Every structure is written in structure tokens, then in C-alpha cells.
Amino acid sequence: MNTPFISAENKDFISRCCYRELLQQVIQINFEEFDLEIGYDSLTVGDGGQVGDSRTIILVLTGSFVPDLIVSMSHQMWLHLQSDESVGSIGFKINYKEIDKESCGDPGTPLYGFQEGSGFLNGNVLRFECQFGFELIGERTITCQNNNQWSANIPMCICEYLDLQSMGEYVQ
Ligand SMILES: [Ca+2]
């Protein structure tokens, strides 16, 4: 692991501009709630200090399907909410935290499931299993990509009985 060299003369410069980079932290946001009018209202998430800079856009989100979490590559992140003039949206609720650089963060564990893996760093792979009686829907393994995003959302564990019923295949 590389530790940045700090001399007496560059210490002041660092304390003014870059100490977060030295701490090697990036920003992770999690969505607790998200529901925007699909196609008309959107939330743009960007990486860096320049709000709206199209070169730094990570994702544009609309509707109700969102990633489990989004992680920046730098120590700054911007969010830009846009709505049209008609039809309201519930909106969104997020929380954020600082995590180590070159990490995708902990995406969590599915309800009624397990998470196995070596960590959350770039290149690490997580594997998911469901408890007995629950079926895994989605990706069984996900990879922490070099852009600090997981390759997919975590899967869901669905009760097999409920799943069959919801698909209209329940046999009495
Ligand atoms: Ca709207």
C-alpha cells in the first residue's frame, strides 16, 4: 500500500486542498426510498465537484428501480434532481457515508439470504445463497468493478410457495 509522502513544506497545501484524498475516502450513497415519475423526472448522480458536468455523470435514475448503492471514484459527488411541470413524484431518500478508495461498499444481504465473499474491493466477488425454501432471483455472484460499482444489484430470496402463487401457477 502506498502512503503519500508529506514534507513540512507541502503540509499546509495538503491541509487546504487534499486531505480527503490522503485519507483515501470516497462517497457511497444508499437509497432508502426512490420513486420518480418514470421518463419525466430524473435524478442525475455525478462524480466530482462540478454539478451538472456531463463528463462526470455516473448514472441517471428514473422510475422506481435503483442500484443498491452508488460509489464515487473521487472524494466528491453531486446529485441533480430534475422534474417536469406535471405529475408529482414521491421523491427519494438517501443516506451516505465515506468508505475506502477502490471499494464498492457493502451492498448488504438479501432478506432470508446469506452473503459470502472476501471483501468489497475492486475485483472482489460476492456470492449469495438463500435459506432453505427460498428461491434466489437475480445474480448469484456480483463483482466489484474498477469504477467502484457492483456488477448488479444483490439478488432477492423469494419464498417458493409465494413465488408460484404470484406467477399464477399455484395448484390446489
Ligand atoms: Ca413530474
Automatic annotation (TrEMBL):
Residues 102-159 form the Sushi domain. CDD domains: CCP (cd00033), CUB (cd00041). Pfam families: CUB (PF00431), Sushi (PF00084). Residues 1-99 form the CUB domain. Gene3D superfamilies: Complement Module, domain 1, Spermadhesin, CUB domain. Disulfide bonds join C130-C157. Keywords: Disulfide bond, Repeat, Signal, Sushi. InterPro entries: CUB_dom (IPR000859), SEZ6_CSMD_C4BPB_Regulators (IPR051277), Sperma_CUB_dom_sf (IPR035914), Sushi/SCR/CCP_sf (IPR035976), Sushi_SCR_CCP_dom (IPR000436). It comes from the Eukaryota. PANTHER family: PROTEIN CBR-CLEC-78. This is Sushi domain-containing protein.
